[in-house]
Amino acid sequence: MTSSIPADFFGRILFLLERYGASFLRGAGVTMAIALVGTLIGCIIGFAVGVVQTIPVSKRDGLPKRIFLKAVKVILSAYVELFRGTPMMVQAMFIYYGSQSLFKINMSMWFAAYFIVSINTGAYMAETVRGGILSIDPGQTEGAKAIGMTHFQTMTSVILPQALRNIMPQIGNNLIINIKDTCVLSIIGTVELFFAAKSVAGTFYTYFEAFTIAMVIYFVLTFTCSRILRWAEHKMDGPDNYDLANLDTLTQTSGMYPFKKRRTGNE
């Protein structure tokens, strides 16, 4: 079988693409699906954890509320530190195989892949969201409370829309990381891009050629996503220059927009 493989490097690459191109594409599709879904769910988890971690606790609150919030924050902090402080590969082994041996839970390979990437991303996003919330001027929170808004209303209507723009680069960074880090899920049998490349390489012992193809595909995926996210950030920034609406009577009376002199019948 190996005698039919071309002798030159580019010839072997073309040979692998012709014979196993569909396998590479399927692996790339699985990689993107896991990365996108895991990042999306991880962002939802991160926003929820970040908001809860920033709930203020004062002495005026009742003792049960303070104890409850303190316990919840300790649990969430433990979750964040645990998943930020251990490799995703170890987490995959622990969750996928540990759930079977300890709790008799037989996770499907696909559910485990989505679950692992999601909770891992959620831990990183929680700290990002917390930092984004704290970066907003505290006066805006005080102003919202002064007009009677609850903490939830303040977060959803005032703070988070501004914090979202600040943390958009980190959201994109997490997506790029997840595209690359899905390769560790091959350890639990997930047939993503790395697994496909490894299988193709082992067939003809063309490791250099197969992983060259995989490297190019990874780069195309990450570069495309980074350009799209950069475009989204630019759209969120809005135009560079803003003009006050000339129909606003307040701006007209301030002298910024002169009144048009009305013609009367005597003119």
Describe the structure.
This protein is an all-alpha fold and 267 residues long. The chain has one domain (17-240): MetI-like fold, CATH 1.10.3720. It is built from nine helices and no strands. The model is unreliable at 250-261 (pLDDT under 50).
Number of strands: 0
Kindly identify the CATH topology.
MetI-like fold
Report helical residue fraction.
over 70%
* Unreliable residue runs: 250-261
State the separation between the terminal residues, measured CA to CA.
Answer: 99 Å
What string gives the helices and strands in order? HHHHHHHHH
What do we call the CATH homologous superfamily?
Answer: MetI-like
pLDDT averaged residue by residue: 85
Give the class-level CATH name: Mainly Alpha
The second-level CATH architecture is Orthogonal Bundle
Largest sheet, in brief, is: none
Structural class: mainly alpha
Strand content: under 5%
Gyration radius, in Å:
27 Å
State the gist of this model.
It is found in: Cell membrane. The protein is mainly alpha-helical.
Topology:
Blueprint: H1 9-53, H2 63-84, H3 88-103, H4 109-134, H5 138-146, H6 151-181, H7 193-204, H8 207-237, H9 249-253
Helix pairs in contact: 1-4, 1-6, 1-7, 1-8, 2-4, 3-4, 4-6, 5-6, 6-8, 7-8
Family: Belongs to the binding-protein-dependent transport system permease family. HisMQ subfamily.
Protein name: ABC transporter, permease protein
InterPro entries: AA_ABC_transptr_permease_3TM (IPR010065), ArtM/GltK/GlnP/TcyL/YhdX-like (IPR043429), MetI-like (IPR000515), MetI-like_sf (IPR035906)
